[in-house]
């Protein structure tokens, strides 16, 4: 009985994660389609690349991982995939923190703050919360699967 409940929790986490990833990718794609002037500016961390390409790459990764979460059967592979993606995003955030001294300098959700009416800080806190959910959730799944054996 306990095993079935845990398996349902895993699947719920993966389904919620894929929905989050699809939504965050959609926010980025909407921003890319809006043709805002700031998209041609250099990325705050990778100054040799326009922000447009950073957002495009992030949205492709999010859509790819979101699709794989729906297609893969292995719980461990799904958790490792989410952990990998969240570590990439955390690394980007730490890079911003190191070079720009702020967690809130990230355009991680594209122009969501402009068309939603939310402040950039609120959108950044929202994206950090999603990132924490993905990272901690995948880590908990991996740890629980390791200690299950």
Q: What distinguishing features does this structure have?
A:
149 residues; mainly alpha
Briefly summarize what is shown:
76% of the residues lie in helices and 0% in strands. The protein is mainly alpha-helical and 149 residues long.
**Uncertain residue segments:** none
The amount of beta strand, in percent, is under 5%
Number of strands: 0
| Head-to-tail CA distance between termini | 17 Å
Helices and strands, in order, run as HHHHH
- Give the overall pLDDT as a whole number: 88
Largest sheet: none
Task: State the oligomer.
Answer: single chain
Tally of separate domains: 1
Shape: elongated
Derived structural class: mainly alpha
Number of helical segments?
A: 5
| Radius of gyration from the alpha-carbon trace, in angstroms | 16 Å
| Residues in helix, % | over 70%
Give a verbal description of the structure.
This protein has 149 residues and is an all-alpha fold. It has one domain. It is 76% helix and 0% strand. It is built from 5 helices and no strands. Helix 1 crosses helix 3 (75-100) and helix 2 (51-71) runs antiparallel to helix 3. The longest helix has 32 residues, at 2-33. The protein is elongated. The mean pLDDT is 88.
Helix-strand layout with pairing:
Layout: H1 2-33, H2 51-71, H3 75-100, H4 112-116, H5 120-148
Helix pairs in contact: 1-2, 1-3, 1-5, 2-3, 3-5
